[in-house]
Design goal:
239 residues, Alpha/beta knot, 2 domains, 5-stranded mixed β-sheet, 6 helices, elongated
Amino acid sequence: MRLSRFFIDAPLSTGEHELPEAQAHYISRVLRMAEGDALQLFDGSGHEFRATLVEVGKKRVVVQIDESFAGQVESPLQIHLGQGLSRGERMDWAIQKATELGVTEITPIFSDRCEVRLKDERADKRLMHWRQVAISACEQCGRSRVPVIHPPLLLADWLKQTQAELKLVLHPVAEPLVSHAKPGTLAFLIGPEGGLSEAEVDQAKVGGFHAARLGPRVLRTETAPVVALAVAQQLWGDF
């Protein structure tokens, strides 16, 4: 039987550990786990930890970590996704599925047709929310490392600082992905709900990006990263 997995945002080792409040509440009040139950923890280091609950209270949960072992091997293809900002669940979906598909880094992108505006405290809250979406996806899919979720950037700034062996911007009129040689690192640029403007696609090309297409149909902004990452992992990664 598969053990329940929980991400702990602190270095773990064998021995007793008191769990953070959020995980403690979920284990004791939602899952209603009891002393003696087994579970599995990970801290983002690439290692997994088998543990047993030794104290379960309303506000305090303590585990005994019995052993550590190497976690799931990451894809040999390191992917940085530049995802055009979209509203609500669309962005959550893109981050969740990109995490499941092995992305290494995600940067939300402000572009001309982006309908989302984030400032100051609201931006910080959204970043925390997106990170939790990625953490939950890792807990479900078995990944031992959580992808990095960067603060949102203007498209021009992201294009300047993004480094990868192969940089691709999705465009309906372009060469298919299979026409490119296998890279070790890959950057994908995907537009928001209204897509990227032609000027933005040209700007990306000046920055070293190649236009690439996924097929004859125009995909939604939350569908495009799922298809793009799945195809890339099939061609060059671990699918």
